[in-house]
Amino acid sequence: MGKKEKAKERREKRRQEISLLRTIPYSDHQRWWTSDTVAVVTGANRGIGFEIARQLALHGLTVILTARETSVGEEAVKVSQERGLTVVFHQLDVVDPSSIEAFAKWTKEIYGGINILVNNAGVNFNFGSDNSVEFAEKVIATNYFGTKNMIKAMIPLMRPSASGARIVNVSSRLGRLNGRRNRIGNIDLRKKLEDDESLSEELIDQTMNTFLEQVKDGSWKDGGWPQVFTDYSLSKLAVNTYTRLIARKFSERPEGQKIYINCCCPGWVKTAMTDWAGHTSPEEGADTAVWLALLPDQLISGRFFGERREINF
Ligand SMILES: NC(=O)c1ccc[n+]([C@@H]2O[C@H](COP(=O)([O-])OP(=O)(O)OC[C@H]3O[C@@H](n4cnc5c(N)ncnc54)[C@H](OP(=O)(O)O)[C@@H]3O)[C@@H](O)[C@H]2O)c1
């Protein structure tokens, strides 16, 4: 059997294991949440985000489904509400600071705070073997800076709780720092991003800005950046490294005010982002994010997961 077939077989086996795991209900002891537990999902009008919102609501949480377009967000909410789920809509564009501010203000007024934030909103403009950086600025602004700005805006709203508040960043294996085939060529930079001592928010931002400057002056092809979906891969690399960084900061918070943050790859999913190519359905793609958001006895933070298993950054 060739490598591809073996990988396909492993994937299929894991899919079957997960679909079995999903049929096992959480026990009363494991359920740390109630119907008053509030989860926010970004970019939830379609695709994986819509499914994450739906599955969290099926588990009995109150879900705030957000979308940048009010009309499509309201339509998406109706689908879940008609099935009796507690899903409400609020507009949120993660690249618009005034939208984030209005969302935070509304959430505080209506709910007082939130328990879970799922940063799912994302964009990609490459398909198949394309590797255009025409929209690099938008990709980095949405996928990395949008995620970071949402985390910063939501920290003060995270409800203190013995189970901890949770943040899940929907990322991608394409953003792996040490991926064998798609990594930053500059070993020194890779080491700095990998090492907890040298990793900083400034370093991540600076890495993104250096890439964007090279896109502007046309020199990015010689910059040693990831070779596949370069802008998208870098944006997710930034999400992953920021997850590791902020998890360390969160670990200093006192008991009762902990925030656990992890990131995950949904796999290659049939959504608009992949032009409906991919191995798995949005329902399956949503699974690891939902599982991470609801982990009983959550003590895991600053890690990266795929198909409910830890993977290397
Ligand atoms: N599909 C895959 O194979 C795959 C693989 C790895 C990772 N992911 C990640 O999974 C997440 C969901 O992707 P998907 O496959 O479900 O893609 P999708 O169907 O294209 O959905 C992306 C969602 O993000 C929203 N969005 C984009 N820009 C936004 C902004 N500025 N503010 C708020 N929302 C915004 C979109 O809203 P509009 O409808 O308004 O555009 C849409 O709701 C993304 O972070 C993606 O990078 C996907």
From TrEMBL:
Entry-linked Pfam families: adh_short
EC main group: oxidoreductase
Residues passing through the membrane, by range: none
Top-rank taxon: Eukaryota
Swiss-Prot/TrEMBL keywords: NADP, Oxidoreductase
Documented EC number(s): 1.1.1.-
InterPro entries linked to this entry: CBR1-like (IPR045313), NAD(P)-bd_dom_sf (IPR036291), SDR_fam (IPR002347)
The family this protein is said to belong to: Belongs to the short-chain dehydrogenases/reductases (SDR) family.
Protein name, UniProt field: Short-chain dehydrogenase/reductase
Organism: Rehmannia glutinosa
Classification lineage: Eukaryota, Viridiplantae, Streptophyta, Embryophyta, Tracheophyta
